[in-house]
Amino acid sequence: MTVMADRAPPPILAVTGLAKAFGRTRALKGVDFELVPGEIHALVGENGAGKSTLIRILAGDHAPDAGEIRLDGVPVRFAHPGDAIAGGVGFVHQIPAFVPDLSVSENYLLGLPYDRRRAGLIDWRAVHRDCREALARLGLVVDPRLPIRHLTAHQRQMVAVARAIRRQPKILVLDEVTASLSEPEVALLLGQISRLKRSGVAIVYVSHRLEEIFRVANRVTVLRDGLRVATLAVAGLTTEDVARHIVGSEAGDLFRREEVATIAGDATPRLAVAGLGDGRLAGIDLQVAAGEIVGLAGLGASGRSRLLRMLGGAAPCREGRILLDGVPCSYRSTRDALAQGVALVTEDRNTDGYVESLPIWQNVTLPWPHRFSHFGVLDLDRERREAAGAAERLGVKMPSIDASMTALSGGNQQKAIFARWVTGPVRLLLLDEPTHGVDIGSKAQIYDIVRGLAARGIAILVASSELEELEALCHRVLLLRGGTIDAQLAGAAITKDRILHNLLAAQ
Ligand SMILES: Nc1ncnc2c1ncn2[C@@H]1O[C@H](COP(=O)(O)OP(=O)(O)OP(=O)(O)O)[C@@H](O)[C@H]1O
After folding, report:
1. Which atom of ligand 1 lies nearest, measured to the CA of 20?
2. Which ligand 1 atom minimizes the distance to the CA of 439?
3. Span 271-341+426-505: which CATH code?
């Protein structure tokens, strides 16, 4: 079904019959897509539906096998990413590219001319001011002189957005830019995007957060299995309508909230933390019982990820004590932590998530090199079989378990990484943004898996910027503010509104 707005202006971008295969995977099977000036057009679909492939072709990263792209009515073929940018199309990809050792400002202005003084010298003060102000409009306050590698994944994402806007594009394509942003940051970003739209910029907005689409988009195009299944005006639609198009059947109650009772706390907690700190975080006290799912909520750079990294051996803690099942423990690395049954799943799957040179199955079993060896002999068949079983249970969409991780769409990479913890001997699971970039159907699967792991007695501490996620999953939610945990919500008191209200009230 295709519903077009009456008397729509001529498209600034018209894509027809776009097709692309990767080996035997037909990522796009003849897709049409139109974008008009001054609209925000959402592009949605399950993980692996073909959204990023469409965007990568527009960006000149992939050559299409068939189809046509017209800009302002003129056929174009972008051979290199630079061509698209020169044609007035700006991109923010799921994992933006940066030069890690250059400063935030230099990355922000990459490829653009610098402000110069009379003698031709770069006016660094003006450059940094420009960068600082652009980031502040997106709610990010950082020193623009810092090397960009010091920024967190979501801060870098904001720099990528500011960079794309700075190039004054006619078309701006945003691929999953809010995946790890907290609510106030999302609001600032969506405000900025709406302003660009009002100034006539045409925006393609890819997101798995349907709620955002209803906040800003005019139209939505749904892709499924490499085909366009609908282009609809957003006004008058419900989330369930869009979800139905995405999954191709009645979506069921994907948004249901499980009744989660608070776990009685008489027994020795699986994790007990007292007075933990590292300078920026201080006096952190918390407990997680076996079988309990505890959430961590905070605004912006509240320290959620830092805390998880400290507990998972990825960052040093200078003060405090960590007890696992009542036994004091300390670990110097994630490997150390893993040996004690503590697994950290970070949000940055690109840098510490997977090994590109290994097939999917070895990425799934990566943390457990000794599990499949018997008297020093590796049982590769069993290892591969178990990995395949775990990936299948999580619905990882892949050409084969032997394929490379780079053959997976972003959300499927996330699920493949998650499959690790389904197979391994874990006592405490630390999850940072576990459904980053994952489609709504798969989210429900991941939630079920997390609940299943908790039911097996694993203690789970989960940080999420998606408050609905905490609401759906957690027995308790801890509120992290000013470098410490200053309140908690439990059981039925955990609602998105209440978490947000408490966090904002505490500002
Ligand atoms: N470089 C590649 N090599 C092989 N297969 C690929 C490659 N890139 C994408 N694919 C496959 O093409 C299909 C479409 O992937 P694409 O990344 O476009 O999906 P997507 O809709 O963006 O998903 P997500 O929401 O997970 O980001 C998937 O089946 C994916 O495995």
Report:
1. 12
2. 25
3. 3.40.50.300
The residue ranges of every structural domain in the chain are 1-88+170-252, 103-168, 271-341+426-505
- Strand-strand pairing, 271-277 and 377-378: unpaired
Q: Count, in order, helices (H) and strands (E) of the chain.
A: 17, 22
- Number of Cβ within 10 Å of residue 467's Cβ equals 21
Centre a 10 Å sphere on the Cβ of residue 336 and count the other Cβ atoms it contains: 14
CA of 244 to the centre of ligand 1 (A): 21
CA of 445 from ligand 1 middle (Å) equals 19
Atom of ligand 1 nearest to the CA of 414: 26
- pTM as predicted: 0.74
Query: Do residues 480 and 504 lie in contact, with contact meaning Cβ atoms separated by under 8 Å?
Result: no
Cα 267 to averaged position of ligand 1 atoms, centre (Å):
46
User: Closest residue (by CA) to atom 25 of ligand 1?
Assistant: 47
Say whether pLDDT at 444 is over 90. Answer: no
Please measure the distance between the N-terminal and C-terminal CA atoms of the chain and give it in whole angstroms: 47
ipTM greater than cut 0.90? yes
Q: Are 130 and 115 in contact (CB under 8 A)?
A: yes
95 with 104: CB under 8 angstroms? no
- Look-up of token digits 């690395």: 333
In this structure, the strands spanning 89-92 and 171-175 are: parallel
Q: Which SS3 state, helix, strand or coil, does residue 319 take?
A: strand
Where does the pLDDT of residue 2 fall: very low under 50, low under 70, confident under 90, or very high at 90 and above?
very low
Equal CATH topology for 1-88+170-252 and 271-341+426-505: yes
For ligand 1, atom 24, which residue shows the shortest CA distance? 47
Q: Output the pLDDT for position 87.
A: 87
Which CATH number applies to 1-88+170-252?
A: 3.40.50.300
What are φ and ψ of residue 310, in 5° steps? -65, -45
